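Schema walk-through. Below, the input block comes first and the output block second. Nothing else is stored per chain. Lengths vary across the set, and this one has 197 residues.
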Amino acid sequence: MPRTILTIAICAATLGPVAMLSAVAAGTKPSHPASRAVAASDQEMVRSAMHAAPAKVGASATIVAANADGSMRTLRPGTNGFTCMPDNPATPGPDPMCMDRPALEWANAWIGHKPPPTGKVGLMYMLSGGTDASNTDPYATKPDAANHWIKTGPHVMVVGADAAFYTNYPRAADPDTAEPYVMWPDTPYEHLMVPVH
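--- output ---
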């Protein structure tokens, strides 16, 4: 399994996708939730992860999860180039995530504080919703007065497009999240957030 998938999946299983990615990107060490009332069965985790994407995408995606000790395991191999992760029960809302290969490369660049790959547009699904994040600071891990924390619902993300693509969409620090907008505008990690409900 590529290192990118391993890093993202281990953190997603403990923190929730957006909070997890922010923690890793900021250089903080993700931690496991202090306790979980009931550990989800593999079958429940597969079902949860599949809800991140459209049914046909989720049905053929690789499903990954982290064990309690942080080791990685594949719950189900896939065939379509997407990798999905289940909801983290320690976060306030549902947040399973599913990404194609270019989106995994983009996320790895962000986590590593490196320039994203060029010429590789990626797609991420979070059709069950998402953990909230700063709209202006790619490395914020919690809200403060200056980082424009926003609430997101079910959405799709387009990452890695040419900068000119993003100029077609609102770039405000405090966007209307009920319509498409650019998250992290004017950073190397700007991407399009597209609400779906």
